[in-house]
Amino acid sequence: MTVSTVDGLRAEMAVGRGGFRLDVTLAAAPGEVLAVLGPNGSGKSTLLDTLAGLLRADTGTVELAGRTLAGDRLHVPPHQRRVGLVTQDTLLFPHLTVLANVAFGPRAHGKPRRAAENTARRWLSEVDASELAGRRPSTLSGGQAQRVALARALATEPDLLLLDEPFAALDVDAAPALRGLVRRVLGVAGGRRATVLVTHDPLDALVLADRVVVLDGGRIVEQGSTGEVLSRPRTAFTARVAGLNLITGTASGDGLVTADGTHVAGMRGEPLADGAPAVAVFLPSAVAVHMERTLASPRNVFPATVAGLEPHGDVIRVRARGGPPWVAGLAADLSPAAIAELALEPGTAIHLVIKATEVTVYGA
Predict the structure, then answer these.
(1) 304 and which of 103, 195, 233, 322 could share a cystine (Cβ 3.0–4.6 Å)?
(2) Whether the model pTM is above 0.70
(3) Where are the domains of the chain?
(4) Whole-angstrom Cα distance, residue 178 to residue 128?
(5) Residue 187's CB: how many other CB atoms inside 10 A?
(6) Which UniProt keywords apply (predicted)?
(7) What is residue 246's DSSP assignment?
């Protein structure tokens, strides 16, 4: 293998898959967790398959821990990459015990049986699954199987760990426990291993990730620290994931102007030139719902129609639709009492009212 000076992961690559093309540059330092978000079809699976070696990049390079895995006609096969993969489907060998499943990787890499089983027992202990060692995969719950799958991936001592929606198939009780366990386990090896986590759940990113990359159409459209990306989204998808409202347009004076000419009053979150692409971001809790239009200079008032009502903790989230495309998907959080008082139901004509001081405008 060609030796490089890169630590951790660095990938600069393009790969085609049917009519789809992924073209990205990203990096993850040793010990860092990089979360990858994006709508369905954005390229998340293609990215993981290429990093794992299941797909060959058309152009570019993939470097990991000082080794070049792809580039200049080089393609290192998956079993030689030192990459661990955990998916929704644990893919445990049904005919092997849990201990044998976890020991399989070290054995395949040349460790003697006793040493491989010792490694397997150590990682089963790390994921709180030692008592499962003698059981078969068919007897495990979903949460138990994911613990074993994580132990199996880590037992190979990978330089890169790929987590593909590892909590998506778990119930509401198992997911938080496993999420906390993964956070602890990822710190066991200190700063040696890079991790790439594909998820649809912002809680996964908030709990586990140091940085976030957002894919759309095979390209990176947002990236930065987890807190920055989720608190200052620049795309509608990220805003929805973060539970925020977002309106796109261009910066203008004290706010933003949408494509249809509507002025949205707000506060500048950063210096912006008038006419620059921009987004207005605000919380659903900052949106009031009135049946009649309310005229007040420091407030934004937009006509809309109720698209749906969604339980959201202690409140009901009202989803809106309307004439201009930017109204679709805007949300307001109201109490059940307010919903009943206003007699809201899908199709009800309403007005969304947002104080300008609750709206922040950022560059897009």
Answers:
(1) 322
(2) yes
(3) 9-231, 243-363
(4) 10
(5) 11
(6) ATP-binding, Molybdenum, Nucleotide-binding, Transport
(7) E
Tokens 């620290």 correspond to: 225
Between CA 10 and CA 239 the distance in angstroms is: 27
Q: At 324, list the tokens.
A: 């201009």
Which CATH number applies to 9-231?
Answer: 3.40.50.300
User: Hunting for tokens 């397997």 — which residue is that?
Assistant: 120
Q: 12-39 pLDDT, tens per residue? A: 999 998 889 999 999 999 989 999 999 8
Sign of the C-alpha dihedral computed for residues 152, 158, 164 and 168 taken in this order? positive
- Residue identified by tokens 């201990």 is 99
Task: Quick: pLDDT tens for 208-228.
Answer: 889 999 999 999 999 998 888
Name the helix (H) or strand (E) containing 216: strand 211-216
362: tokens are: 């950022």
CA atoms within 13 A on the CB side of 53: 18
Round to whole Å and give the CA distance between 238 and 255: 21
